[in-house]
Each structure stands twice: as C-alpha cells, then as structure tokens.
Write a structure and sequence with these properties.
CATH architecture of the largest domain in chain A: 3-Layer(aba) Sandwich
Mean pLDDT of chain A: 95
Low-confidence stretches of chain B: none
Number of strands of chain B: 12
Helix content of chain B: 25-40%
Oligomer: heterodimer
Largest sheet of chain A: 7 strands, antiparallel
Largest interface: A-B, 41 and 54 residues
Structural class of chain B: alpha+beta
Shape of chain A: globular
Structural class of chain A: alpha/beta
CATH superfamily of the largest domain in chain A: Nucleotide-binding domain of ferredoxin-NADP reductase (FNR) module
Radius of gyration of chain A: 18 Å
Distance between the termini of chain A: 34 Å
CATH class of the largest domain in chain A: Alpha Beta
Mean pLDDT of chain B: 95
Shape of chain B: globular
Largest sheet of chain B: 8 strands, mixed
Number of helices of chain B: 12
Low-confidence stretches of chain A: none
CATH topology of the largest domain in chain A: Rossmann fold
Order of helices and strands of chain B: EHEEHEEEHHEHEEHEHHHEEHHH
Radius of gyration of chain B: 22 Å
Chain lengths: 266, 337
C-alpha cells in the first residue's frame, strides 16, 4: 500500500532572494505540476506546510517561501546543495484550457503572485495560447515586490500595472501607483468583457473586493477564478482543516471558479 | 449462530481469543471521572471478561483504538525513515451499534475521501472485529433512533447480558469458536427502538441558516474546550506535529494528533490569517458537518446520535437541541420562501 504521507528529499539547486523575507527555491525534481497546484513542504523535526509552486520546468520546480514561521525560518537558512522534503503536487490548478484565445487579466496581491507566476512566464516566453495577458499586482511597499527581474521582462511583452499600499522610508525608489489593487481594476482596459477571463489570488479581503470590482467591469461571475489559502496538514482530504461546507480546498481547490467560491462560507 | 455462554466460560473464551486478538472494551476506571470520586468509562485493552463495562455508555468512543489521539507516522534519522510496527494480531472491539456505524463514517474519510487510502488507518481497520453489546434500553442523551443508527446488520458477534451469562450471536470464524464454550440457543438481536431524546434533521438547509443569530448564542456559551469533538466517534480531524529527541535532534518523528474545529488555531495560518474566530461560527461549522455537509458529499449523515458530546459538555450545550433548533429554523426559512 502506498504511504501518501511520506515525503521525498529534493535537492536545492538555487536560492533567489526576492525581498528580505521572500526567497525563491529551485528544487531538482521530475514532478509533473500544473500552475496553481501546491506541495506539502517539510523539514523532519521542524514541521510541514502547504506551499504553492511558483514556477516549474523540465527537471525543476520553484517555490517562493516567506520567512514567517518556524518551518520557513529553518528553510531560509538553507543554501544550494542543501535539501528539504516535499510531497505532492496537490489540488487542481488553474483551468488553462478555459483561457485559450481569451484576454486574461491576473490580479495578484502580495505572495499571491507566486501561484500565477508560471502562467505569466509561459505566456511571456511565447508559450500558451492566450489572446492577451494583463497583470495587476499589489504589494505592501516597493520593497515587498516579488519577481522584480521577471516583472521587468514581462513589461516588454504585456501590460503590467503595479500598485503599493504605501511608500515607506526604506523603500526602493518608486514611480508606480499607490493605493489598493481595486483602484487598478476600475481602470484596467477591458476591450471585450465576454472574451475576458480573470484570475484573482491574494488575501481573502483583497480577493473579495477585487471580484466585486471585476463584476462592475461586466466580467461574468463564471469567468472569474480565485485561489484559496487554508491551513492544510495532509493535502489528501483527511485532516479536515481546509474543509468549507462539503468542499475540501486541498482536493477541489485551491483554485475555484467564483460561482463556487462565493457560495463557500467558512 | 446463537450460543449461551456462562460468564466463567466467556472469560476462558476471551483468553483463547487473546492469542490471536488484542481485545479492547469499555472499562470503568474508579476515580478517573470528570467530577470528584466518579468513575470514567473509557476504552482499554482488557485481560478478562470481568473488566468489561456492559451497563454504561463509555465517555470516549472506540475510535482511538485504531485512530490514536497521537499516532507516529514515521520515525526519522538523518536520511532514513521507518514506520512504526503494526501489530500482527487482529483487534476485537466491544462496542455499541452506533459505534459500528461511526466506524463507517471514519472509513469514508480515511479510506475513500479524495480517492486515497490512509495507510495507517487502513492497516488497523482491516484487523477489526466488532463484538457488539446490545443496548437493553437507551442511555441518557442518546438519539440513535432518530439518526437510524440503532439497528445493525454488520457485526461479528452480538452479545446480550443474560444474568450470569452472555447470549451471543457469533458469525464467521467466531461461530465455531463460540460453540465450544456454551450451548446452542436462538439469539435474535434486539435493538433500542426509542430514545428519550429525539431529533429531526432537516432535509434542506438554506444558506440563511448559516447566518442566523442562533449561532451567536453559542459564542457566549461555548468555551472552545473541544470535549465534544474528542468524545465524538466520528470526528476525524488531525494536525501534523514534528518532534525531535532532546538527546539527538537529528532523530525524531512525525506524528499526527487529533485536532478540533472548536479549538483556537484550527484554521490559523502563519501571517495571522484564520477563520471562524467566533465560537458560534465553530459550533455552526461542526453542526453543519455532522448533519448537513457530510451528507451532501457522501449521502448520509455523519452524526450517529450517540449523545457523547452532550454527555461531556462542561457548559451543558445540547447538540441534540441544536439540531432541533436548526430544523425549526430551516423549516421556517423554506416555508418563508
């Protein structure tokens, strides 16, 4: 019988600091991953946590991990040549087939940019079959911006609009906009609402109000997808932490169509 | 196969069975109860029939026998993992009809949900044999009849206390073994057909019920102690916990420990996000799982009506009353529409 709880060792082949507290880890593995899926990441003796895959390619996956707790604190001490343990991937990712030939708008708040990064990098490197792609992203301050190099490259190919909540004195120079991401949504060009599809990923409040703004822009409910973040101890539909009503976020999510997401009461 | 077995022979029978089985049953532990000088009825491995508590309801359910409160999933050293040993013997569980129904709910989550079999549960579960003790009459707070869990087809042995003997209906391999310890009788299982406590589970629950002020009352009453979920025979939630050994931090183990949706931190994530901070919302979440959303997913109710949650609540919150209140509100809501 297969033991689904046993993690396997994955070697770290690269560590790319994004901010003072967010590092991207590249791991050598042949896993078959879809954008939006997550892994259970662990260090034996420290703990285990669900972390979304931020990008992947042949023989590698990347995860962008914020140093916020005991496990992630230990992970942040690791260097290339080191390793941690993973199992997965879990959950359903984004339904990419729904986006073929569509104008896709991605609204990402903070670390919510990580689960959608692979969609952006694929489109901007000429893969994927989107008609167009627009990125709206919000961060707390300019120093909290993730994937700065990638974003510069994406700007060459697609419309990228970034806003920050505030500019503090430690911030890097900032000539972008300030304010909530909903401000970007009210102004983003939507040529053809019927052909537009939307992905929203971020903190619960950000997702709720962003969705309401997109509805005002005549995007149909069924054309919006969100990705939920929940406590999960198994990824297998057993531990119960991520359940909302009869829905297990680890099994049926973490990506949900808005028509389903808006019905889920925690 | 009906067999009438005197108590001293029954004891010898258990001795024979203990060669191939770990035998577990509710036992009465003097002085261990919730109140001073009261006993606790709970599950233990037993050595003789005299230890079995036939007359009272156990405070805790038998689920812990195959789904322990703390369970080591694997031990690790620097580069290696090893799994704890699984006992060679089978496992006999003396329990009630509702408890067997509860195991079916555990099976749903651990063996089938998500299409993945939980190896730790599965390996112990397939060893289990149910020795079901007939309930002569309903215990306090039981509402098994309302939940349809009073009757049972699927057992290995059914037992009825009859003076200083047991009347048994033994099936399968047990039929032959039991016959050697007593005389053949006709034994047709009897089940409780009425409880003092009755509930009506609403067929449909409108979303408005989720937002009803009813739940706010529980915010002030419930103290989030989690007794209800710990005593529940159908609660399955757990949290992962890693430990390392003080003498050598490179060795340790990954465990799972029971978790409760009623207790702080159940949904907490690093960074401070969490859900259901109000205890009333947790009560709503638990009640809906037991009588609504589990059924939506698997086709039958999770709650088996054992009433243990009502037995143990230090704040005297009645789950049974809550179901009936939800029913009244749900009927009102649908009638209103």
């Amino acid at each position: 019988m297969n033991n689904a709880y046993l993690p396997f060792k994955a070697a770290i082949t690269g560590v790319m600091p994004q901010t003072a507290s967010d590092y991207t880890y590249r791991l050598a593995t042949d896993l078959d991953v879809r954008p939006g899926q997550f892994m259970e990441v662990s260090i034996p003796g420290v703990g285990e946590a669900p972390i979304s895959v931020s990008d992947f390619g042949s023989g590698w996956i990347e995860m962008t991990i914020r140093n916020v707790g005991r496990l992630t604190g230990v992970i942040h001490e690791l260097k290339p040549g080191g390793h941690f343990f993973i199992r997965g991937p879990y959950g359903h990712g984004f339904p990419l087939e729904e986006f073929t030939g569509r104008d896709l708008i991605i609204a990402a708040g903070g670390t919510g940019l990580a689960p959608v990064k692979s969609i952006l990098s694929r489109h901007c490197s000429g893969q994927g079959r989107l008609k167009s792609l627009t990125l709206l992203a919000g961060f707390k301050t300019p120093s909290d911006m993730l994937f700065k190099d990638e974003i510069s490259a994406w700007r060459e190919k697609i419309d990228v609009q970034i806003t920050v909540d505030k500019i503090d004195e430690n911030s890097s120079p900032w000539d972008g906009s300030t304010g909530l991401i909903t401000g970007l949504i009210t102004k983003v060009p939507v040529q053809n609402p019927g052909n537009t599809r939307v992905i929203i990923v971020g903190p619960p409040v950000m997702m709720k109000f962003s969705a309401l703004e997109f509805l005002k822009r005549d995007i149909a409910r069924e054309n919006i997808w969100v990705s939920f973040e929940r406590k999960m101890c198994c990824g297998l539909g057993k531990c119960g932490h991520c359940k909302i009503d009869d829905t297990y976020v680890c099994l049926e999510g973490p990506v949900f169509n808005y028509t389903r997401a808006e019905e889920l009461i925690d | 196969m009906g067999v009438y077995i005197k108590n001293n022979s029954f004891d010898q029978l258990l001795t024979e069975l203990s060669r191939d089985y770990i035998i577990t049953a509710p036992v009465k532990l003097p002085g261990k109860g919730a109140f001073s000088d009261t006993p606790l009825v709970t599950y233990r491995e037993i050595r003789g029939a005299g230890e079995i508590e036939f007359n009272e309801k156990s405070r805790f359910s038998p689920k812990e026998i195959i789904y322990p409160i703390t369970q080591t999933l694997f031990y690790f050293t620097e580069n290696e993992y090893s799994r704890p040993a699984v006992p060679d013997q089978g496992i006999i569980i003396f329990c009630r009809a509702c408890d067997v129904h509860a195991f079916r709910r555990l099976d749903e989550i651990f063996l089938r949900n998500g299409g993945c079999e939980d190896i730790y549960f599965a390996e112990l579960r397939k060893k289990v044999k149910f020795f079901v003790m007939e309930c002569r009459e309903s215990f306090e707070n039981c509402f098994c009849v309302s939940m349809g869990t009073n009757r049972l087809e699927d057992y290995d042995v059914m037992l009825r206390v009859s003076g200083d003997a047991q009347e048994c209906d033994a099936r399968g391999d047990f039929a032959g073994i039991f016959t050697g310890y007593g005389e053949a009788v006709e034994m047709i299982p009897r089940f409780v057909e009425e409880n003092h406590t009755k509930v009506t589970v609403p067929e449909n629950i409108d979303r408005q019920v989720f937002k009803h002020p009813l739940w706010e009352e529980y915010s002030s009453r419930c103290i989030a102690c989690g007794h209800c979920t710990v005593s529940c025979p159908t609660c399955t939630c757990f949290t992962m916990q890693d430990i390392f050994y003080e003498d050598n931090p490179k060795c340790g183990e990954r465990r799972r420990v029971w978790a409760s949706c009623m207790i702080d931190g159940f949904t907490s994530m690093v960074g401070g996000h969490g859900f259901r901070n109000e205890k009333g919302d947790r009560m709503r979440f638990k009640v809906m799982h037991k009588i609504y959303d589990f059924r939506k997913r698997f086709g039958y109710n999770m709650c088996v009506g054992c009433g243990r949650c009502d037995d143990v609540c230090p704040e005297y919150i009645s789950f049974a009353n809550c179901i009936n209140r939800v029913n009244t509100i749900a009927s009102g809501v649908s009638a209103h529409e």
